[in-house]
Amino acid sequence: MVILIPLLPALAFAALVFFGWQLKERAPYVSIAALAGSFLLSLLAAIEVFQGTTIEVSAAWLPIVAFSFRIDLISAWMLLLVTGVGLMIQIYSIGYMKGDPRFARFFAYLSLFCAAMLGVVLANNLLLLYIFWELVGLGSYLLIGFWFEKPSAAAACKKAFIFTRAGDIGFFLGILLLFLSLGAIDFQTIFSQAHTLSVPLVTAITLLIFCGAIGKSAQFPLHVWLPDAMEGPTPVSALIHAATMVAAGVYMVARLFPLFELAPLTLTIIGYLGIGTALMACLIAVTQTDIKKIMAYSTISQLGFMMLAMGANAPEAGMFHLLTHGFFKALLFLGAGSIIHAVHSNEMSEMGGLAKAMPITFATTMIGALALTGIPPFSGFFSKDEILAAAYHNLPVAFWLAVAAVFLTAFYVFRMIFKIFPGQVKGHPHESPRVMTVPLIILAVFAFGFGFFNPFAGGHHEEAAPLLVFASSLGMATLGIFTAWLLYGAKVVSLAGWHNNFLYKFVANKFYLDEFFIYVFGWTATAVSQGLAIFDQLVIDGIVNLVGRVGWIFAFVNSFFDIYIVDGLVNLLAKISALFGEALRRAQTGLVQNYLLFVVVGIVLVLLIRR
Amino acid sequence: MDILAISLILFGLGLFGALTRKNAVAILMSIELMLNAVNLNFVYFSRTLIDLSGQIFTLFIIAAAAAEAAIGLAIILNLYREFGDIDVEKAALLKW
């Protein structure tokens, strides 16, 4: 039964790849039915898990690797999140992707992606996790590059693939190192034996494994792929960047937390890297004008928060935030998609007065925004509060940085809200069809209410959040909203000329990180390959040419042997034959009587001899 | 015995004629001579051995000789048309 959870979408993928062109408009029913099946199965499994059991399924596969799945509390919730949000997004896509020439193909890719992600969630050993992890990478590549006719989308999917791959190299090395030192990659064995390893070794292993999470969960400095990945269709952005792919990194750290726990240094690095990423992404989000880009940077910064939770030794808080974030970010992305669908543009300058034109989208996006900002009683508040509390106890410096990030989060979200919803209607936007708004409403319900019960409450990191944490996070969030209202709602302070500021430009250009990668890695790679090209031409080609020349000389000598000795023998035989022929042809006189004479003489001779 | 001697002489004359004469008709006649020498032999042995098959053989040879003479004369006629002569030494195109 557990096997079926990822298998159903995988089968839907196969079916749609091969028969999608025949199904056309009916293609989504296949993939949605498959994912709904997975959702129901996940629900059944989750109910079992919530009663306190752990489901484990295992089948022999390779000598050291079993094909094993495990559902515990964390993975049960992840299953529900992935299948639930995935289901909403697939339903929404029916409306969003209507009329696309590769309509069926889109749902095939969505199914593949969901199958891979469910595999990541269920995997009970590192190799299996890694395999599905890479399949997720493949799925994201296909989905981001879905509109591959656009050069920017083609570039974005390659960028996403290469940057996540850069992190995965570290992940793979980490797995190898762990396997070499423990001889096992099965999670339970690792957790029970990891304490026998020395601390520096565990630190090295966990740092390497964390590299994978840096790539997948878009942490600094490998986060640059995520904003570009907005080139994909918006439902893809919602799926990849809210509930699934980027969550995989956080989930992986949470799943392996017993191992990470043994390396305090790694945890500290993760924590500070997380909050650094969060702050940086918030700052960039403030300068963006494309609503999907704002969402992208918002995702990066929220992932930073989750990583902070991991670093602050509170994986439960991080997972809680992952779940709430999965709902409200999917909601925000789908809301943004609904807006883009109506306005046909990503730029905020083209939008305005959408509150009147698109009331459902407005209401649901507001709920998402409040959840993201962390205003009680919306879900984001509860999870963020737990992270802040954990950080307050374990990483005090990071706590204050996080408070700043909370302020910036509120500011950039409401900057967007104030820019696009109030005021005069621009153009003729219209509310999206019901197939798109219903998923929005369902997600909004979760984004609002999910925080009221923490699925991981009662964990061993339970510590009462001090009033200071509560007050500062709420105060900062309110302050952020108020500042945004001052600048963009009421327009009390004029922002003219601000865009020429050096600092603004620095941030708006994403800290020139893309350029950094292009110049440093791009140029290094070019220089190295040019050097190698010269080496190739001089040495490799030289050797090849030398071999060729030697062969040529051999052939030349050989040809003499052929011409004079082999051919000579053949010609000699032919010459001898010709000589005999020349001598004997004289007998052929043409005179019948001569021949007759020969016959008579011959007969006489035969008779004489026979005697 | 005498008859065998006659037949041998007859065959020798025919062979000599066939080898030495230049005239194609004469060669044809010599060949007829040899055939008849053979016939004579067949008849003689048939009689001495009291076996009729020799005589039957002779009848066949006479028939074949008649056909051969007809074909041979036709060839000679064509030879004459081609070369204006029936001298076999002139018809020596199939030489080296």
Automatic annotation (TrEMBL), chain A:
Highest taxon in the source lineage: Bacteria
GO terms, molecular function: NADH dehydrogenase (ubiquinone) activity; NADH dehydrogenase activity
Keyword Cell inner membrane carried by entry: no
Coiled-coil segments: none
Cellular location(s): Endomembrane system; Membrane
UniProt keyword Membrane, yes or no: yes
Topology of the protein relative to the lipid bilayer: Multi-pass membrane protein
Biological process annotations from GO: ATP synthesis coupled electron transport; electron transport coupled proton transport
Protein name according to UniProt: NADH-quinone oxidoreductase subunit L
Species of provenance: candidate division WOR-1 bacterium RIFCSPHIGHO2_01_FULL_53_15
Automatic annotation (TrEMBL), chain B:
One GO-annotated biological process of the protein: ATP synthesis coupled electron transport
Main localization category: membrane
Topology of this chain in the membrane: Multi-pass membrane protein
Localisation per UniProt entry: Cell membrane; Membrane
The protein's Enzyme Commission number: 7.1.1.-
Membrane-crossing segments per the record: 27-45, 57-80
Coiled coil: none
UniProt function note: NDH-1 shuttles electrons from NADH, via FMN and iron-sulfur (Fe-S) centers, to quinones in the respiratory chain. The immediate electron acceptor for the enzyme in this species is believed to be ubiquinone. Couples the redox reaction to proton translocation (for every two electrons transferred, four hydrogen ions are translocated across the cytoplasmic membrane), and thus conserves the redox energy in a proton gradient.
The protein's name in its UniProt record: NADH-quinone oxidoreductase subunit K
Native species: candidate division WOR-1 bacterium RIFCSPHIGHO2_01_FULL_53_15
